[in-house]
Write a structure and sequence with these properties.
The chain has 312 residues and is an alpha/beta fold. Helices cover 23% and strands 29% of the residues. α4 links the parallel β4 and β5.
């Protein structure tokens, strides 16, 4: 088993976890490409973590510059790993590493390619999701699959909890890739994706980010859970409703399984656990809202008998 030269491109806590896992393998980390100012959900950025561990740091935007390919070739980089970086990597850079360039994608490719895959999976009511380690090609999330892990979604999964599951499983796939590359690079699987099953998602937010109270309770709750990255910012914000001239964001809610004939959006009785709101088929329990930047218990402003309007 030979010692590999690895370059890591990444951001946020996922990048930090990948870096720490790589540091334990004994392989040489040539450089970490990250954004100095991008704050990870936690104590530090990936840039800071790499500096603290004594690794060279290069600005992440360099991956867009074809001239980086020569730099990687000179450093005899075997593998480039991309973990939660949003920069589009130059074609020349992708082909520079001797073994290949690989991306950790938080979705079960060829489904859920693109952005915010964990949000879309929860929003659509999936019962399983996954993470994929694939070779990178110029088309986004379209390269051959090396390894993939699929796991069940909990009934109360949130955007944050599912992201964490994907990172944990993805780091283990990354370890497996590096081990295989060190012993026999030709043994790395490269399974072509079935393009007939490909789904690609951009930066759009479903329903324009607005709640529609006439939809089934499960759909309303799924939308809230998909947007829930508390205490960190959500890429989709929070689904919006209206109370008079106030915009109300739905942060946390759950299904009660209690049928209702009340008009959708009607506010029912509440308590310490939250406030009931009628949907198209059942009551849901709303336990956290946000308005004007303040996170509140819903009983603070929602009164029994009033009615929330759809967002706009």
């Amino acid at each position: 088993m030979r010692r590999l030269n690895v370059a890591l491109v990444g951001e946020d806590s996922a990048g930090i976890q990948a870096l720490r896992a790589l540091a334990q393998t004994g392989h040489r980390i040539v450089a970490v490409l990250a954004s100095p100012s991008r704050r990870a959900p936690g104590a530090m950025t990936l840039w800071e973590a790499a500096r603290n561990l004594g690794y060279a740091t290069w600005p992440a935007p360099l991956v867009k510059d074809p001239s980086l390919a020569e730099r990687l070739t000179t450093a005899e980089v075997d593998i480039l790993l991309n973990v939660h970086s949003l920069f589009i990597i130059s074609r020349d850079v992708l082909t520079a590493p001797r073994v290949g360039s690989f991306n950790m994608h938080p979705g079960p490719l060829p489904r859920y390619a693109g952005l915010n895959s964990v949000c879309w999976a929860i929003y659509r009511g999936e019962r399983a999701h996954g993470v994929t380690l694939h070779e990178m090609v110029p088309e986004i999330d379209a390269g051959p699959i090396a390894y993939q892990a699929v796991f069940a979604l909990d009934e109360n999964e949130t955007g944050l909890s599912l992201t964490a599951k994907c990172v944990r499983a993805g780091v283990e796939l990354m370890r497996r890739l590096v081990e295989t590359a060190a012993s026999d690079p030709g043994a790395i699987p490269r399974l072509a994706q079935d393009v007939s099953r490909r789904e690609y998602f951009g930066a759009e937010v479903p329903q324009g980010g607005c709640l529609v109270w006439s939809r089934p309770s499960r759909d309303v709750v799924n939308f809230a859970r998909a947007c829930d990255f508390t205490p960190f910012p959500s890429p989709w914000g929070h689904p919006r409703a209206r109370l008079g001239d106030q915009t109300i964001g739905l942060v946390k809610a759950l299904c009660l399984g209690e049928a209702t004939s009340a008009l959708p959006g009607t506010i029912g009785p509440g308590g310490d656990a939250g406030v009931r709101v009628a949907t198209g088929d059942e009551w849901i329990l709303v336990s956290r809202i946000v308005t004007a930047g303040r996170y509140l218990h819903p009983a603070t402003i929602l009164r029994t008998g009033n009615r929330l309007e759809d967002g706009r």
